[in-house]
Specification:
2 strands; two-stranded antiparallel ribbon
């Protein structure tokens, strides 16, 4: 199986697992999955988040997902338990499709690391 085919297959597995668990089978999009990863990384599961907090959750997820690629580095948890990251290297300019592929690859790697998929 080619690398692209493997990524596509693993991505579909992640989408299916999360959609079944969190969306009653409705298909979650990339942003929704990033949001869920942010909630997971924050660890505050029974909280209703405000709009600005939801944006921050997505930022947490993106930082965590791109940390293994060398773009971000975890710094500390603040007094409210929110993780903070610093930029290590600026992301190169990417087209929308390239951004999407990078994030899908990072999400698949996250779920491989967490041993949720194979």
């Amino acid at each position: 199986m080619s690398r692209d085919e493997q990524l596509k297959s693993r991505w579909e597995t992640v989408v299916t697992i999360l959609s079944n668990q969190f969306a009653d089978g409705d298909i979650l999009d990339l942003d929704a999955i990033i949001y869920l990863i942010g909630v997971q990384e924050l660890g505050q599961f029974n909280k209703a988040f405000k709009k600005d907090e939801k944006v921050n959750l997505m930022h947490i997820a993106i930082c965590r997902l791109l940390e293994p690629y060398g773009y971000y580095e975890f710094e500390f948890f603040d007094n409210d338990g929110w993780p903070h990251y610093k930029v290590k290297e600026q992301l190169p300019p990417l087209k929308a499709g390239e951004q999407s592929v990078l994030m899908k690859e990072a999400i698949v790697n996250y779920f491989l690391e967490k041993q949720i998929i194979e």
